[in-house]
Specification:
about 5% helix, 5-stranded mixed β-sheet, about 475 residues, globular, single chain
């Protein structure tokens, strides 16, 4: 059966029965010559091949991906001045056996910051630099545009930031925190502001409330910005799809509001309640646009653009989490429960404009067909929660960790469901809710050296947790941990 699968699937799934194969190493060096100066150096590399839910292809959401990378990270702190620089380089192939899914990448990160402290106030100022470079030219035909980028492309940002904290209001009962950051990308080249304003008020020794309002922007996306591909897809007439990015997209933006309450019910029992609400907009996607005729490599084509646009989708999520922290001698128990709901506004199942030719009745079925519509997202569990427990069975020798969680069922819709032939039959997967139990045992042989056994999904509940993905059974992990 495995041989047949390999012959049928070719290079895309060289080991269909193996979900993961990975190797890696990390090395760390810490040096603290005096109390004012500390330095850290980290080095590492990894080589991996995994089957994962990367992109749907109308047959399976699973693709085989490979990655080989290495990194170096240096951190230096002198008094209140901190500096860190990180470098990562490697090669990725997100869809093994699929032309145009392989590229080299390089990522460079740097941050410098300084702390200023005056009595009960502190101010941190700094600047962050990041550049990501992707190059697929060694693996594709650039002239024929068989790659995703067909060139060496980069996304970079310079982001000054500050964080202010003051805990001296109302006899120390009120604490205010503000954080600001401005990202200036090469594309889009407009400043994007992120911020966080929070306040906590200590009612008395046992009760505290807090409130947070924040905005976050997602980084620019390399594919949405630089996509550049030409695919011949049909004859009579000669037809092609032209994939293109957009350097002027609005970045995904989320506004978040949180309200929290913490109470010490007893000396060994703490209660936390948190309510949250957030809205997200400026989503982006590839859309089939207006077709046109053009000449490429001396051939006349009917060309269907497939370009990146911001879409009208807006999401609104709200919910609440309740948790306890209970200490009983050598036992620490932390139960939690979260309720959540996501509302979709202007959500369309179609990724085309009104004049796309690769669509069924595009005048009625397009990205703007559902503007004004509201619906509840079924693709996430409404309830999830669990309990974590840590027990020191033998002081400084034997530790037990129990981690249990559960989630309620939810329903996932894939692209196949848009086809009228498969409506409500294919492309729909109801993920069954279930509880899961994980157990870890750690035994310290001598100081700084310990053995551990980690058992995931103790009761071997074999149901999938993502659309058409593998059922996940019991896993055993073990190892030796030591520090020099």
């Amino acid at each position: 059966d495995t041989i047949l699968k390999r012959n049928a699937l070719g290079n895309a799934y060289p080991s269909p029965e193996q979900s993961m194969q990975k190797y890696g190493y990390n090395a760390f060096l810490h040096y603290t010559p005096n109390e004012n100066l500390q330095m850290r150096l980290s080095l590492g590399a990894q080589d991996s091949r995994v089957q994962k839910a990367y992109s749907e292809n109308f047959a399976t959401p699973l693709t085989t991906s490979t990655s080989q990378s290495r990194y170096a990270d240096i951190f230096v702190q002198y008094n209140r001045l901190r500096a860190q620089i990180s470098y990562q380089q490697g090669t990725q192939e997100e869809g093994l056996g699929v032309l145009g899914q392989k590229w080299d990448f390089t990522t460079l990160d740097g941050v410098v910051s300084y702390d200023i402290r005056i009595k009960k106030a502190s101010l941190e100022v700094g600047t962050n630099f990041r550049e990501g470079i992707y190059d697929d030219t060694p693996y594709v035909d650039v002239v024929a545009k068989t790659g995703q980028f067909n060139g060496r492309r980069n996304i970079g940002t310079i982001a000054p930031f500050l964080r202010f904290d003051y805990a001296g209001l109302l006899q120390g009962k009120l604490r205010l925190t503000t954080a600001l950051r401005v990202d200036i990308f090469n594309y889009p080249d407009k400043p994007n502001l992120s911020y966080n304003f929070s306040a906590s008020y200590k009612i008395n020794e046992y009760n505290l409330i807090r409130i947070v309002y924040a905005r976050a922007n997602r980084s620019a996306n390399i594919l949405f910005t630089y996509a550049d591909r030409f695919l011949e897809v049909g004859q009579n007439p000669l037809t092609a799809i032209e994939l293109s990015g957009n350097k002027n997209l609005k970045l995904l933006k989320m506004n978040m509001f949180e309200l929290g309450y913490r109470s010490i019910l007893r000396e060994n029992l703490q209660l936390n309640i948190e309510a949250f609400y957030n809205t997200t907009q400026n989503y982006a996607n590839f859309l089939y646009g207006d077709a046109y005729t053009g000449t490429v490599n001396n051939k006349n084509y009917l060309i269907q653009p497939f370009a990146t646009y911001n879409i009208p989708l807006v999401t609104r999520q709200f919910g609440a989490t309740v948790s306890l922290n209970w200490l009983l001698d050598k036992l620490n128990i932390r139960p939690y429960l979260t309720y959540q709901q996501m509302q979709l506004r202007n959500s369309s199942p179609y990724n085309n404009t009104e004049k796309a030719i690769f669509a069924t009745n595009p005048a009625e079925n397009n990205i703007n067909s559902f503007v004004g519509k509201k619906e509840v997202d079924t693709g996430m569990p409404t309830l999830f929660g669990g309990v974590t427990a840590n027990y020191e069975a033998i002081p400084r020798k034997l530790y037990l960790n129990l981690n249990t969680y559960f989630f309620t069922s939810y329903k996932y819709y894939a692209y196949q469901n848009l086809d009228a032939r498969y409506k409500d039959k294919a492309g729909v997967d109801k993920i069954a809710g279930k509880p899961l139990v994980n157990l870890k045992v750690n035994f310290q042989i001598v100081p700084n050296t310990s053995l551990y056994l980690n058992i995931r999904n103790v009761f071997n509940q074999r149901t999938n947790e993502f659309f058409n993905a593998d059922s996940t059974g019991i896993y055993f992990f073990g190892g030796l941990h030591f520090e020099l």
